[in-house]
Amino acid sequence: xxxxxxxxxxxxxxxxxxxxNALGHAYQARAAAGLIVQLKTMPVFQxxxxxxxxxxxxxxxxxxxxxQWCLACGKRCYAPVIIGNxxxxxxxxxxxxxxxxxxxxxxxxxxxxxxxxxxxxxxxLVLLPLVGFDSHGNRxxxxxxxxxxxxxxxxxxxxSTPQLIxxxxxxxxxxxxxxxxxDIPISAVITDQRIYRCDGCWTDSDxxxxxxxxxxxx
Length: 218
Prior knowledge:
By secondary structure, the chain is of the alpha/beta class. The protein is 22% helix and 19% strand.
């Protein structure tokens, strides 16, 4: 069921956060299982090697099974890390042996040295959490501006990597969200039930689906 649009993003954010936090354990488990089924149908996901995702918090749809599948397939997985009081995210690799600490918002982050972090352009694909979205790819986050700041370079070069895909519960879809001029467009939104591809963004046929970064692994 699609909710009616609300003019104030703060009100909409509050309502949607309340709804997703009210979801029971069984619902969340089914949604997480549905999410990975949808993701596996996307060539950009299949062909990406360096993938960033988040550690679920605040009722977000949980990509933990996605992480485990990626690691089993030999993909390199990363999670966002907040550095000091900056809004520019960097990314830490997650392995089977990674330890975690909570950041100032109480969200788990990989406990790694700053020298081991990588920057956003080094990634092929970023799976980011959404609070709300519409079928055109307009979105609402938590309001901190971390992702918009980190990927601001894509405003001038929207086809640069990484490709950005939002993840959400289907119940987080609303009829319309007005984009702000600082919002960074995303390529698609994936829920536990379907994929919403965004107009004017990358498609599965672009650039062999992903840029495969070449790094000196030594």
